[in-house]
């Protein structure tokens, strides 16, 4: 698993089962773009650990939060995966749920939530955040035991445990699943699919790929297959759990 060292901002390899690390969950910055693995690697090649290589503000802030809370390593999907390598991308997608689950802290950065925000009102910036509408952030909400929500200025809003009632109202996901009071296997296939029903992804295939971890399956990622990806997901789930209700999710 490739991660960033939160002190040097350089890539390192770790065994996620044996190393403590934090993980970042965020929505893609379409306005400013995101530094990819290839871009960041080229920058790092021109720098030694002193001084630290120049990186985007979001990456620096995520590393600073993780470092402040005691983590030497952080995983960020936008820059820690070599997305030009189809094999690495496929492996990462199939393993991502486990990586989030093994992390000791997930930093959920809500870029559209201003400082000093209220969260109890349904019309609040917190409850209306884009983060709660994206397909990939679903696994990033459920898989980790600890999720801390941060506002646009990187101030702590609260934890998943503290805001469980509010998050349940926003997402429709029972607090028993959010807080790991029951294993995922205790929730029906149809119920797990329903958690993603109102979520969106940039690429149609990701609607299926982002759910792989919820059913403990592996399947190759084939970008360009379109809606067939969801049918393949259903077929793989069916092999493990003959629950006909899953086909209601087309």
From TrEMBL:
DUF8212 domain sequence ranges: 228-250
Annotated Heterokaryon incompatibility domain residues: 21-112
Top-level taxonomic group: Eukaryota
InterPro entries: DUF8212 (IPR058525), HET (IPR010730)
PANTHER family for the chain: HET DOMAIN-CONTAINING PROTEIN
Protein name (record): Heterokaryon incompatibility protein-domain-containing protein
The species this protein was found in: Dichomitus squalens
């Amino acid at each position: 698993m490739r991660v960033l060292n939160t002190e040097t901002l350089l890539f390192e390899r770790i065994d996620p089962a044996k190393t403590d690390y934090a993980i970042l969950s965020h929505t893609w910055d379409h306005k400013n773009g995101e530094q990819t693995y290839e871009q960041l690697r080229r920058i790092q090649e021109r720098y030694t650990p002193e001084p630290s290589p120049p990186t985007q503000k979001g990456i620096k802030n995520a590393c600073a939060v993780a470092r402040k809370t005691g983590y030497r390593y952080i995983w960020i999907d936008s820059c820690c995966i070599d997305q030009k390598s189809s094999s690495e991308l496929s492996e990462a997608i199939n393993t991502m749920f486990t990586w989030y689950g093994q992390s000791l802290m997930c930093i959920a950065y809500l870029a559209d939530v201003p400082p000093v925000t209220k969260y109890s009102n349904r019309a609040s910036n917190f409850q209306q955040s884009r983060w709660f509408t994206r397909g990939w952030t679903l696994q990033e909400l459920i898989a980790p035991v600890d999720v801390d929500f941060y506002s646009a200025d990187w101030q702590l809003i609260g934890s998943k445990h503290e805001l469980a009632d509010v998050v349940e109202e926003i997402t429709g996901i029972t607090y028993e699943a959010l807080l790991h009071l029951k294993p995922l296997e205790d929730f029906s296939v149809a119920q797990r699919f329903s958690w993603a029903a109102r979520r969106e992804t940039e690429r149609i295939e990701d609607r299926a790929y982002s759910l792989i971890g919820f059913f403990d399956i592996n399947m190759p990622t084939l970008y360009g297959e379109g809606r067939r990806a969801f049918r393949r997901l259903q077929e793989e789930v069916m092999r493990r759990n003959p629950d006909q209700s899953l086909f209601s999710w087309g």
